[in-house]
Specification:
5 strands
């Protein structure tokens, strides 16, 4: 039977794959925030920042539902093995990035189709 973290991961994964995602850069680009408005009362935020203590890059991941912390992890760029939860968190951020690329590609294709239709109607 799936545990609570499995259910949360599955829920977040499904939300990312089926929702429009916004992206913003906070603190002069030091923090990247992906956000999903689930409904009028719920916003899920995925925040990632980089730090470099001891000259080793670390990625700081935070997942929030409104103001409630859902998950967080600090992962070294030199980490050889991640825990299951760290892998899940990292995967969710990769899914957010892929969804942004999908949305931008879809928008560009739609603009091209619309421009082609406009040219066809003008000719």
């Amino acid at each position: 039977m799936p545990d609570e973290s499995d259910r949360i991961y599955s829920y977040l994964k499904r939300i990312i794959q089926t929702s429009a995602i916004g992206v913003a850069y906070i603190a002069d680009g030091a923090i990247k925030e992906y956000s999903i408005d689930v409904d009028k009362d719920m916003c899920i935020s995925f925040l990632v920042s980089r730090s470099k203590p001891d000259n080793i890059i670390h990625y700081n991941y935070i997942i929030m539902a409104n103001d409630d912390l859902i998950a967080e992890a600090v992962i070294s760029s030199q980490a050889k093995h991640l825990t299951a939860d760290e892998k899940r968190i990292e995967n969710l951020f990769e899914l957010c990035s892929a969804r942004i690329i999908f949305q931008e590609t879809k928008m560009a294709i739609q603009k091209t189709i619309d421009a082609d239709r406009q040219n066809t109607h003008l000719n």
